[in-house]
Please model this.
Amino acid sequence: MELNRQLIWKLSVIGLILLVLWRVISEPDTISRVLQYTFQLLTPIIMGIAIALLLNTVLSYIEERFHLKRYQGLLIVYITFIGILAISVVTLFPRIYSSLSSLINELPVYIRQIDVFLGEVNNYLKDYNATIAQAIDFARFEDRYSGWVETAVLSSVNYVSSFTMTLINFLIGIVISIYLLKDKEVFARMFKRLLYALLPVGTAKTTIDIFQEMDYIFKRYIIGKSLDCLIIGVLAVIGLLIIGAPYALLLGVIVGVLNFIPYVGPLLGMIPAFIITYFYDPFTAVLVLLFIFLLQQFDGLWLGPKILGDSVGITPFWVITSIIIGGSLFGLVGMFVSVPITAMIQVVLSRLIDYRLNRKNLNELL
Model:
């Protein structure tokens, strides 16, 4: 009877896996939409868990250091946390919004400048080779791509709407995190009881160890990378102000935020800074490009390793692969969270591989 149950269970799992693979192959768009909808639905809970994980270290420290009760520690931690956020928003957001509005208003001027520049390039190509000029056809860029301005404005409206939804989810996440931290021992005990009830004792213990290691990696990466991005953002704003670049605060914030994405982020931050500054002054744009490049080298070669060390322990190939997959499925948010999630998956797979190799007595040979 026990053998039949195990056989039925294995066949059911294999059937489910084959069904999912068939759906992925036959209808990839459907799977993508389901994943996106699930991610959007769980976003407040994910944010709440992330905030709770980040603040739990601080809460535990001040409770032990000052012998505070739980509600006292929660008050101190969340008043400080929300206060820092509020000060940052009140100080930075109006200036960033003003710079962004000014930039959108000046887009038609930039479009006309591109039109003039490409018109000159087209005239030069006509003198050099009429066939090439006709094939490329740079003429009347403004007429052909005047919709770019409207598209940019509509995109900014969509981003504002997305930002509003993100803000709402973040506020809900804060509330969820408060309840998680308030009863964290209760949740931890429930989780342990569930694991020991469903799994063999050794497997349950290993699973708990894996979650503790994942928690350590997540907190170390997020806190370290946030500090790294803050320093780079501040240095970027100071450097851009010294150079005399327009919208220094906006560009510095973009560089700092996108720096959170390894490898790809610095390039994404460098391109808009160069393009926007180029319309203001080409020489200044070259200085901006050189400054951000040197800043990113400083971050990659010294600051990042100093702060983060080997916090995630995954190779550049898997980092870039995870960024591509995360970005294609969940956009910019997916690019931000892809690296720590990949690191957590690696922890699980590494433990599973070690377990299987140990059972085959191959761990020391491979």
The first helix runs from residue 2 to 26.
